[in-house]
Amino acid sequence: MDLAPELSAVTPAEMRSTLGRFATGVVVLSVGGEHIHGMTANAFSSVSLDPPLVLCCIARTATMHRAITASGHFATSVLHADQEGSARHFADRTRPAGRAQFDAVDWVPGPHTGAPVLADALAWLECELTDVHEAGDHSVFIGRVLATGKGTGQAGLLFFNGAYGQVGTTEGP
């Protein structure tokens, strides 16, 4: 492995290619109300257990960026291995806008925010936006978790090297 000491500018394509080697879980972020919108994401993480905080990173040019900023809340549906179709749907820029984009999936409104939660998700969280940090061409949204739930599935959907995969266990939840 060549780790030359010289510094060079890393291009967006190099950054994407390199970080593609990092396996991540796959979620669908959603916002309810008048700004209803959904988006597939893999830049999602736990921040704190006490208080319960999570983060998601979203391009400032994305419709979801405007939706979260305007609504002040979001939900996250953690996808199970059989929900690759949902991941692809919410990553497709040609899908319908607004409420119609959710016609292709089963969902229920989150009890606190009304944001769509995908039925049969491996897990879900509803969050109130507490902080936004500018970071390059993205913003890091910090959400205080208002409610959570778990589905019955045991295998999670992963994204690695530009492709979907899965990881599972036969152990209990």
Automatic annotation (TrEMBL):
Which SMART domains did the record assign? Flavin_Reduct (SM00903)
Every copy of the Flavin reductase like domain together lies at 19-166
Task: Tell me yes or no: is Iron among this UniProt entry's keywords.
Answer: no
Which SUPFAM superfamilies does the entry link to? FMN-binding split barrel (SSF50475)
Name of this chain's protein: Flavin reductase family protein
Recorded hits in InterPro entries, A to Z, give:
Flavin_Rdtase-like_dom, NADH-dep_flavin_reductase, Split_barrel_FMN-bd
Cited Pfam families? Flavin_Reduct (PF01613)
Q: Cite the Gene3D superfamilies for this sequence.
A: Electron Transport, Fmn-binding Protein, Chain A
Instruction: Give yes or no: UniProt keyword Oxidoreductase.
Output: yes
Organism encoding this protein: Saccharothrix mutabilis subsp. mutabilis
Q: Which UniProt keywords apply?
A: Oxidoreductase
